[in-house]
Amino acid sequence: MKVIGIGNAIVDVICKVEETFLTNNKLTKSTMKLVDESEFNKLLSNLKIEDTVSGGSVANSIVGLSQLGNEVGFIGKINNDELGSKYEEGLKKEKVKYFYKKKKEVIPTGTCLILITPDSERTMVTYLGTAGKISDKDIDVNAIKKSEVLFLEGYLWDEGEPKKAFEKAIQNSNKVAMSLSDLFCVERHKVHFLELVKNKLDITFANEQEMMSLIGAKKFDEIIDFSKNTKKLIVVTRGESGAVAIKDNEVHECSAMKILKIRDLTGAGDLFAGGFLHGFVNRKTIKESLERGTEMSSKIIQIIGARLN
């Protein structure tokens, strides 16, 4: 396979809300908040569901790679329940090989409320469910060894079992890429993420805000200097300012596409990473990979949800 992803296997529940819904429920716009099952159900009880899709950050990237014609796989923990079955079917429909055998768990399959405000920003409320309980026993070492690139998400990193799963996967990989996922994740795991970026990852995906927080930078030039020193490939998305990839002493830039109608920013980073990795595994230049990532993310923000049809 070209790429195998390991991430939170989560069913996305997409809802449109007004700004007041976020304020009333003490939610910070454009971030992801982890909640328990009862809080999740309480929020959901006041909402109208627009759509339900098998999601999760890395899974979205992997589906994007599959749609571009790459052989790909995914590892993520689900329960043998209705949402778990729906999740598995969603991946198989997209021609993604699923390297996980679901069984009856005490905790249900994870779900994520994606709240879209009128300005197209998305705020996420996640009940990780059994997705967050992934352990080293869930890792298919053979599948990882047979893949050119292992792709991980910062959302999944946590002390205990998930950390062991990460380490086992990295030890058996040929090349490893990771998305820092969210400012919330970076601030929670700064020391670990910094160690990963400097010493374990071949490719790091982050947005400007996440990268600034990770290294305590005040201006973008500091990110470039840091990246040059790591000697790794670091790819930073900058919203309307486009995207930048730094490798050794070279800085490659790609401007953002001028989009007419942004409908929902969900999945923009996921599809960007998928597009970039497509270029990378198909031996394209860094500039071409940036362009493909930008093209994929510009397509996804013009539709609702994180999957291109």
Would you give an account of this structure?
By secondary structure, the chain is of the alpha/beta class. The protein has one domain (3-7, 57-100, 132-300): Ribokinase (UDP-N-acetylmuramoyl-L-alanine:D-glutamate ligase, 3-Layer(aba) Sandwich), CATH 3.40.1190. It has twelve helices and 14 strands. The chain has helices spanning 19-24, 37-44, 57-67, 82-93, 141-145, 161-171, 183-188, 190-199, 208-215, 220-230, 268-281, 286-300, and strands spanning 3-6, 10-16, 32-34, 49-55, 72-75, 97-98, 110-116, 122-127, 149-153, 176-179, 203-207, 233-237, 243-247, 250-254. The strands form two sheets. A nine-stranded mixed sheet has the order 6-5-1-9-10-11-12-13-14, with helices on both faces. A five-stranded mixed sheet has the order 3-8-7-2-4. Strand 13 (243-247) and strand 14 (250-254) form a beta hairpin. Helix 3 (57-67) packs across helix 11 (268-281), helix 9 (208-215) crosses helix 10 and helix 11 packs antiparallel against helix 12 (286-300). The radius of gyration is 18 Å and the shape is globular.
List keywords for this structure.
12 helices, 309 residues, UDP-N-acetylmuramoyl-L-alanine:D-glutamate ligase, alpha/beta, 9-stranded mixed sheet
Give the oligomeric state: single chain
CATH architecture label name: 3-Layer(aba) Sandwich
Counting DSSP H or I runs of 4 or more residues, the number of helices is 12
Q: What strand order characterises the main sheet?
A: 6-5-1-9-10-11-12-13-14
Integer tally of domains: 1
Overall shape: it is globular
Helix/strand/pairing category:
alpha/beta
The major pleated sheet works out as: 9 strands, mixed
**How far apart are the first and last residues' alpha carbons, in Å?**
22 Å
What fraction, in percent, of the residue positions are helical? 25-40%
> Uncertain segments of ≥5 residues (pLDDT<50)?
none
One letter per element, helices H and strands E, the order comes to EEHEHEHEHEEEHEHEHHEHHEEEHH
Overall average pLDDT: 93
Name of the top-level CATH class: Alpha Beta
What name does the CATH topology carry? UDP-N-acetylmuramoyl-L-alanine:D-glutamate ligase
**CATH superfamily assignment?**
Ribokinase
Strand content is: 15-25%
Radius of gyration: 18 Å
Number of strands: 14
